[in-house]
Design brief:
The complex is a heterodimer of chains A (539) and B (468). Chain A has 539 residues and is mainly beta. Chain A is built from six helices and 40 strands. A four-stranded antiparallel sheet of chain A has the order 1-32-31-30, with no helix packed on it. Chain A is globular and about 70 Å long. With 468 residues, chain B is mostly helical. A two-stranded antiparallel ribbon of chain B has the order 1-2. The longest helix of chain B has 29 residues. The chains are: A mainly beta (539), B mainly alpha (468). Chains A and B meet through strand 12 and strand 13 of A and helix 13 of B.
Chain lengths: 539, 468
C-alpha cells in the first residue's frame, strides 16, 4: 500500500502540477488562417513587419510570402482580418517577397513600407524590383516601383533610418546572390560555395518626394551577399551607423560590416576590423537591445551554427555568446542549427531583456544542418540567460524565419509573431506549417511605453531618436526599430519593464537635432505619445 | 423530351463555355448561370431515366469537373511533385473508367490486364436501379479524398461543396434506396482500385518526397544538390514502384546515358557548351518557353496536370463522347504514371550530373540555369518521358487537324502564359522537351533520347491496353 501511495505521489509530482507555458500559440484563434496555397518548396521569404496602417493604435502586420502571395493583417482589437485586397496590397501578388519594413517616408502621418523582392534565377517571371507601398490616408496603399531607382536585384532585407539627419527616412537594401557556383574536390564531391553577389543599395530620401540611390557615394555599396542590416547608433555620436550581415562569408571572404556614419560628412567608414564585427559567417539576422543597461545598444547576430552576441563597450563589439550560453552552435552532436531572428525584449516586464530566437531548417550543401530545429527562448534572470525553451510554448519543430515583437492585444505584455516557411520534409508531416502568433501568458510586471514622433512633417518616424530609461540606478537605451531580425520589423512603440514599481523614475529622450526632453515619475502601465514639444498620454 | 434535350444542351454548352472562360477568369459568371441550369435539371429529370446520350454527357461533365478539381488539388496539396501527381491522376482516370465500364457495353474492364489485380465479380450487380451519375460522383469523390488526403482545409471544404452540388444536381427522381445503392456501388469500385494501388510503393509518396534515409552516391559524374534550394534527392525509390501496366519498364531497357567526359571534344562537353551558349543568349523566347513548360509544383499542377488540361481541352474542342474521353484519359494516365516510374528507375540507376554542376566545374564557375534545376539526377528527362508518352496517346485519339491551343497558363501572372499554338502533338511534345534545354536543366542528347523512349511507352500502352 505504501509503495502504491509512493508511486502515486511521484506521478502526481511529475504531472499533477503541470507547468503552464510562457506563450500560447493563438494564430488560428485570432484569425491568422493563411495556409500557403501551394506545395512549392520555400527556401526563403517570411519577413514580418509590424505596422499601424490606420493609426488606430492597434499594431497590424505584413506577412511576406516568399514564393506565395503576401498578406496584410489588420488588427481589429486583438483579432486579425485579411486586409490584403482592401488595402490594395494584392498589387504585390506574384512578387517574390522576402521581407518588408515600414516608415513614414513622406512625413504625412501615415506609415508606408518598402518590400524587398527576390526572384532572379527562380524562374518566376520578371518582377524583381523593390516596391514602395505608399499609404494613402490610412485607407489603402499604392504601389510605386523603384525599378528606375535601383534596377533589378535579389533583394533580401532592408532597414530604415535617417542617415543624413535631414528629417526624412532613408532606406538601405541588402542585395543577395547573383550567381551561385559550387566548389567540388577532384572526386566531384561538393565541398563549398562560390557565389557572386549583387551590390547593396542606399536610397536617400529627397524631402519625401523621391529616392536617389547613393550607396557608392556613401561608401556602403557592399557586395557580400547581404542578408540583414540595421541602422543604429552604435557609438552614440548622434547619427545612425550601419551594421550589415553577409551570408556565405566563409566562402566569399567578405565578413559582416560595421560602417560608422561620418555625419555631417555624407559617408560611412568601414571600421569592421577595428571593432570586431567582421565575422565571416552565414549572417542571417540582427537584433538589438541594451542588455546590460549601460546606456548603449548590444547586438545579437544569427548564423548557421554559432550565433554571436556582441556587447557594446565604447563602440567596440565583443562577442560573449558562448559565455552567456546563447551561441546555439549545435543542435545535436556536431550538427549545426540555423537561427534567423534573434530578438531582445522584456517578456515579463521585470526590467531586463529576454531573448527569442526563431530557428528553422534551410537545405544546404554544406554545412550539415538539422531539420528538427526548434525555436529557442531565454529568460534573463539576474543577468543570466536561462534556457526556458522547453516550457516556452514557442519551440515547435517548424522552419521559422522572420519574427517581430508587439503587443497585439494591448493587454500590457509583449507577444511574438513568427513566420514559418513551407518545407516538404517528412519531419513536418501533419504539422500546421503556417505563421505563428505566440501570445504572452506570463505574470507580468508593470511597464511604461513610449511612442516617439517628430512634428511639423519632419522625422515622424523618429529613427535615430534615443530613449534612455533610468530606474534603480541603471540607464537603459532604446531606439525605434527601423528593421531587425531577418527582414522583419517590430513595433515602433518602446516598452520598458518596471517590475513591481508604480512609476518610471526618469526618461530622457534625445532627438536627432540635439533636443533633449526629460520626464520624471511616469506613471506605470501607460502608453505615452511624445514629440519634441512634450508628451501626450494616450492610454 | 424535346424540352429536356434543350435544357441539357444548355448545361452542356455552359460547361464548354466554362472551360474556355476559366482561363479568362470568368468563373463567377458561369457559376451564376449554372445555378439556374441546375434548377431546370431538377424540374425535368424526374420524367426521364435511362442511359441516354444525355446521361453520357452528364457523366462526362462530372468527370471533367473532377479532373479540374484534381488539377487544383495538385497545386494545393503539399508533396505533390510530378511523380506523386502522375500517380494520383493515373488512378483517378482508372477509377473513372472502371466506374463507367458497367454502364457502357462497348467498353470492357481493363483491370485483368494490370499487374496483380483483378476487379471483384461482386460489383457486377444489377444496374437497372442505379443512378449512373451518382455512381460516378461517389467514386470520383472517394478517389479525390483518398489520393489528396492531405489537402488543406480550404480545399477540403471546396471538395465537399463540389460533392454536394453534384449530388443535388442529379439526385432528383432517384429513390432513397437507389441513391444509397448507387453510392455504395461507386464507392465499392473506387475502394477496390484504391486498395490495390496501396501496394504499388507510392502510397505515401506525398509524405516522403525527400526520405532522410537516402544518401546519394558521390562520384565525378554523379548528381549532386544544386542551387538555389540545395534540396536532397526527390523520391529516390520511386523507380521501384509497380507500374500499372506490366512490362512498361522493359520498354526503356535500352535507354542508356551519354558517356561522361570532361574532354572538350566529347559529346557531353559539346552538349554542355551548347546549353551554356543558349543560356547566354538573351532571346526572350527561350525564357518564355522554359517557363511555360516549367510546371513547378504549386503553379500549374505539375507537367501531369498540364497534360490532363490539354486532354480535357481536346475532348471539348473535338466533341469527344464519354467513351472516347474515358479511354483516352485512362491510357494517358497510365502512360504518364508508368513513364515517370520508368524514368525514375533510370535516373537513380545512372545518377547523372546536372548541366549546372558540369558547366560550373568545366566551363564557367558562375553559370546559373534559367530555371532552377530539379532536385534529382539528370538522365533521363522525366518531363520528356511523360511528354512523349502523353502526346503519343493524345495523337492517337485526335480526330481533326485543328490547331492545338495550349491555354493552361493563360491566367498565370508570374510568367508569360500566353497560349501557345501547335499543329500537332508531336510538335507540342518537341517543344515541351526542348524547354528543359532552354531552362538549362537538361542536356540536349538526354532530351532526344528521353522523348524517344517516352513515345515508345505511350505507343506500348496504347497498343497493349485493350479497352474494347
Amino acid at each position: 500500500m505504501h509503495r502504491i501511495l509512493l508511486i502515486f505521489v511521484t506521478i502526481y509530482s511529475c504531472f499533477g502540477q503541470a507547468q503552464s507555458l510562457l506563450f500560447d500559440e493563438v494564430g488560428t484563434e485570432k484569425g491568422l488562417n493563411y495556409i500557403y496555397p501551394g506545395n512549392e518548396f520555400q527556401m526563403a521569404g517570411g519577413g514580418v513587419m509590424v505596422i499601424d496602417v490606420n493609426n488606430d493604435g492597434w499594431d497590424d502586420f505584413f506577412q511576406s510570402g516568399g514564393v506565395f502571395n503576401s498578406k496584410l493583417w489588420l488588427n481589429a482589437k486583438g483579432t486579425f482580418v485579411d486586409a490584403t485586397d482592401l488595402y490594395g496590397v494584392n498589387a504585390l501578388n506574384d512578387y517574390f517577397i522576402q521581407g518588408a519594413v515600414s516608415a513614414d517616408y513622406d512625413n504625412d502621418g501615415f506609415q508606408d513600407f518598402i518590400v524587398v523582392n527576390y526572384g532572379i534565377g527562380m524562374g518566376r517571371g520578371d518582377k524583381f524590383e523593390p516596391c514602395l507601398m505608399h499609404n494613402i490616408n490610412g485607407e489603402k496603399f499604392e504601389l510605386i516601383s523603384l525599378k528606375d531607382v535601383v534596377g533589378p536585384g535579389n533583394f533580401s532585407a532592408a532597414c530604415w533610418g535617417d542617415v543624413n539627419n535631414d528629417g526624412f527616412s532613408d532606406v538601405y537594401l541588402t542585395n543577395y546572390i547573383e550567381t551561385m557556383g559550387g566548389i567540388s574536390d577532384e572526386n566531384g564531391v561538393e565541398i563549398g560555395y562560390n557565389p557572386t553577389c549583387f551590390k547593396n543599395k542606399l536610397l536617400i530620401n529627397v524631402n519625401g518626394t523621391k529616392f536617389v540611390e547613393k550607396a557608392i557615394d556613401y561608401g556602403v555599396n557592399d557586395g557580400g551577399c547581404g542578408l540583414a542590416a540595421s541602422l543604429t547608433d552604435v557609438d552614440l555620436d548622434g547619427d545612425l551607423d550601419l551594421l550589415l550581415l553577409n551570408d556565405f562569408g566563409e566562402w566569399t571572404g567578405k565578413g559582416n560590416k560595421y560602417y560608422r556614419n561620418d555625419f555631417p560628412k555624407e559617408g560611412f567608414t568601414d571600421i569592421s576590423d577595428d571593432t570586431g564585427f567582421n565575422q565571416k559567417m552565414y549572417g542571417m539576422g540582427i537584433g538589438q537591445g541594451d542588455i546590460d543597461s549601460d546606456g548603449d545598444l548590444d547586438y545579437y547576430v544569427t548564423n548557421i551554427g554559432e550565433n554571436y552576441f556582441f556587447k557594446n563597450q565604447n563602440g567596440a563589439l565583443l562577442n560573449s555568446a558562448k559565455e552567456d550560453g546563447v551561441d546555439l552552435t549545435y543542435v545535436s552532436d556536431s550538427i549545426r542549427g540555423t537561427s534567423w531572428s534573434g530578438l531582445f525584449f522584456d517578456c515579463d516586464f521585470d526590467g531586463d531583456l529576454d531573448l527569442y530566437v526563431s530557428k528553422g531548417n534551410v537545405s544546404t550543401l554544406v554545412p550539415k544542418t538539422v531539420i528538427k530545429d526548434q525555436n529557442k527562448f531565454f529568460v534573463n534572470e539576474n543577468g543570466k540567460f536561462i534556457d526556458k525553451s522547453q516550457s516556452s510554448g514557442v519551440n515547435d519543430l517548424l522552419s521559422h524565419r522572420g519574427a517581430a515583437i508587439f503587443d497585439f492585444d494591448l493587454d500590457g505584455d509583449l507577444d511574438i509573431v513568427s513566420s514559418v516557411v513551407k518545407l516538404p520534409w517528412s519531419a513536418y508531416r501533419g504539422l500546421d506549417q503556417k505563421l505563428k502568433l505566440f501570445k504572452n501568458t506570463m505574470p507580468n510586471g508593470n511597464f511604461v511605453a513610449v511612442k516617439l514622433s517628430g512634428i511639423n512633417n519632419v522625422n515622424r518616424d523618429c529613427f535615430g531618436c534615443k530613449a534612455f530609461f533610468e530606474q534603480n540606478g541603471n540607464v537603459t537605451l532604446k531606439e525605434v526599430d527601423g528593421g531587425s531580425g531577418q527582414a522583419s520589423q517590430s513595433s515602433k512603440t518602446l516598452y520598458f519593464g518596471l517590475g513591481d514599481k508604480e512609476s518610471l523614475e526618469l526618461l530622457k529622450v534625445v532627438w536627432p537635432d540635439g533636443t533633449v526632453k526629460i520626464y520624471k515619475n511616469l506613471k506605470s502601465n501607460t502608453v505615452y505619445h511624445m514629440n519634441t514639444k512634450g508628451k501626450l498620454k494616450i492610454q | 423530351m424535346k424540352c429536356k434535350f434543350t435544357i441539357y444542351s444548355l448545361i452542356e454548352i455552359l460547361h464548354k463555355i466554362e472551360y474556355l472562360l476559366v482561363i479568362l477568369k470568368m468563373r463567377l459568371i458561369i457559376s451564376s448561370l449554372k445555378k439556374y441550369s441546375v434548377v431546370m435539371v431538377m424540374i425535368t429529370s424526374s420524367c426521364y431515366f435511362s442511359y441516354s446520350q444525355d446521361t453520357h454527357q452528364n457523366v462526362k461533365a462530372i468527370n471533367d469537373k473532377c479532373l479540374l478539381e484534381a488539377y487544383d488539388l495538385t497545386r494545393n496539396c503539399v508533396g505533390f511533385s510530378a511523380p506523386v501527381s502522375g500517380r494520383a491522376f493515373a488512378y483517378l482516370s482508372v477509377i473513372m473508367y472502371e466506374t463507367s465500364v458497367p454502364f457502357i457495353a462497348e467498353l470492357k474492364s481493363v483491370t485483368k490486364q494490370f499487374s496483380d489485380f483483378n476487379m471483384s465479380e461482386s460489383i457486377n450487380d444489377d444496374l437497372s436501379h442505379l443512378s449512373w451519375e451518382l455512381v460516378v460522383i461517389s467514386s470520383n469523390i472517394k478517389a479525390l479524398n483518398y489520393y489528396y488526403r492531405n489537402m488543406p482545409p480550404a480545399s477540403k471544404q471546396r471538395l465537399m461543396t463540389l460533392e454536394q452540388q453534384l449530388k443535388e444536381a442529379y439526385v432528383t427522381g432517384v429513390s432513397a434506396n437507389s441513391k444509397l445503392k448507387s453510392i455504395q456501388f461507386g464507392e465499392a469500385i473506387a475502394t477496390q482500385i484504391i486498395d490495390w494501388s496501396k501496394s504499388d510503393g507510392g502510397d505515401i509518396g506525398f509524405e516522403e518526397n525527400f526520405p532522410e534515409t537516402f544518401s546519394p552516391k558521390e562520384c565525378i559524374s554523379c548528381w549532386t544538390k544544386t542551387t538555389p534550394g540545395y534540396l536532397p534527392a526527390l523520391l529516390p525509390y520511386w523507380g521501384e514502384n509497380r507500374t500499372i501496366l506490366a512490362g512498361v519498364k522493359e520498354v526503356s531497357n535500352a535507354c542508356v546515358v551519354t558517356e561522361f567526359s570532361k574532354d572538350s571534344s566529347s559529346l557531353l562537353f559539346k552538349d554542355a557548351m551548347s546549353l551554356y551558349l543558349n543560356a547566354k543568349d538573351n532571346n526572350p523566347e527561350y525564357e518564355t518557353i522554359a517557363e511555360f513548360w516549367d510546371d513547378s509544383p504549386g503553379y500549374s499542377g505539375t507537367p501531369v496536370g498540364h497534360f490532363f488540361m490539354l486532354a480535357l481541352n481536346q475532348t471539348i474542342v473535338e466533341e469527344f463522347s464519354l467513351t472516347e474521353s474515358l479511354e483516352m484519359n485512362l491510357k494517358m494516365g497510365i502512360a504518364i504514371n508508368d513513364a515517370i516510374i520508368s524514368s525514375w528507375y533510370l535516373k537513380y540507376k545512372y545518377n547523372f550530373i546536372r548541366p549546372i554542376t558540369y558547366i560550373q566545374r568545366y566551363i564557367d564557375p558562375q553559370f546559373n540555369s534559367r530555371i532552377p534545376s530539379p532536385p534529382f539526377p539528370e538522365f533521363p528527362s522525366g518531363h520528356s518521358f511523360q511528354s512523349g508518352a502523353a502526346t503519343t496517346i493524345l495523337s492517337e485519339f485526335r480526330k481533326s487537324g485543328a490547331l492545338i491551343i495550349d491555354s493552361t497558363n493563360w491566367n498565370r501572372e508570374d510568367i508569360i502564359g500566353t497560349p501557345r499554338k501547335f499543329d500537332s502533338y508531336h510538335s507540342l511534345g518537341e517543344e515541351a522537351s526542348k524547354s528543359r534545354f532552354y531552362g538549362g536543366i537538361h542536356f540536349d542528347e538526354t532530351l532526344r533520347i528521353s522523348l524517344l523512349y517516352g513515345r515508345k511507352i505511350g505507343a506500348y500502352v496504347n497498343s497493349t491496353l485493350e479497352c474494347r
